[in-house]
Amino acid sequence: MSDNTTIIRTALVTGGSKGIGYGVAEVLIKEGIKVAITSRTQEAADEAAAALNKIKEGYALPLVSDVRDFDSQQKSVDAIIEKWGRLDYVIANAGVGHLVTFADISLEQWHETIDINLTGVFYSAKAALEALKTSKGYFITIASLAGANFFDKGTAYNASKFGLVGFTQALMLDLRQEGIKVSTIMPGSVATYFNNHTPSEKDAWKIQPEDIGQIVSDLIKMPARTLPSKVEVRPSMPPGK
């Protein structure tokens, strides 16, 4: 007798209550993948999950987590395993940006940027490692073109994203023999709340959060033998200067 049980895949999206993280969760849920989203506040996580569950009821799980705290990340992974029995994909999206001159950036802003954008991803990977070994899963980081192109007022942000790209590429080499794929996505201008920006109709030319979700979807659909380890993505037609 054949086993017709359908395996429902699951994902963890850090910083999934808004912006790119929410856009990724939205696309994955539409494709039948259950998604746990994390936020530093219960209110934000619950509000985003309620909206996502209107797409498919019971497919979004709100979790309170701070990527700067390893134990917090481990609890998120444990909650997913307890709820759904497996973890297939991790999208390490949580990030922050303080674009100020070196003279003006505070010690607190420096540490927050490095701790969230770089150390936080390390913690996410460490916490999810055993679960991804079991599922032969995929770990995807959301970096930035700022991880390859430096600019003024970017000392902390450039440092974090250059580091993240290097970390992800090295992680890919370490984990591929475990059957785990690792990729980094490096977007240019995205219509998000980055650097205290509020998205509006004026951002129509920018990459939209769901566009990054589509790239994540395309990556996890690639044949097992093929790994696009680094994806750079830009707006196709930015405003002329």
TrEMBL record:
<protein>
    <submittedName>
        <fullName>SDR family oxidoreductase</fullName>
    </submittedName>
</protein>
<dbReference type="GO" id="GO:0032787">
    <property type="term" value="P:monocarboxylic acid metabolic process"/>
</dbReference>
<comment type="similarity">
    <text>Belongs to the short-chain dehydrogenases/reductases (SDR) family.</text>
</comment>
<dbReference type="InterPro" id="IPR036291">
    <property type="entry name" value="NAD(P)-bd_dom_sf"/>
</dbReference>
<dbReference type="InterPro" id="IPR002347">
    <property type="entry name" value="SDR_fam"/>
</dbReference>
<feature type="domain" description="Ketoreductase">
    <location>
        <begin position="9"/>
        <end position="191"/>
    </location>
</feature>
<dbReference type="InterPro" id="IPR057326">
    <property type="entry name" value="KR_dom"/>
</dbReference>
<dbReference type="InterPro" id="IPR020904">
    <property type="entry name" value="Sc_DH/Rdtase_CS"/>
</dbReference>
<dbReference type="InterPro" id="IPR050259">
    <property type="entry name" value="SDR"/>
</dbReference>
<dbReference type="Pfam" id="PF00106">
    <property type="entry name" value="adh_short"/>
</dbReference>
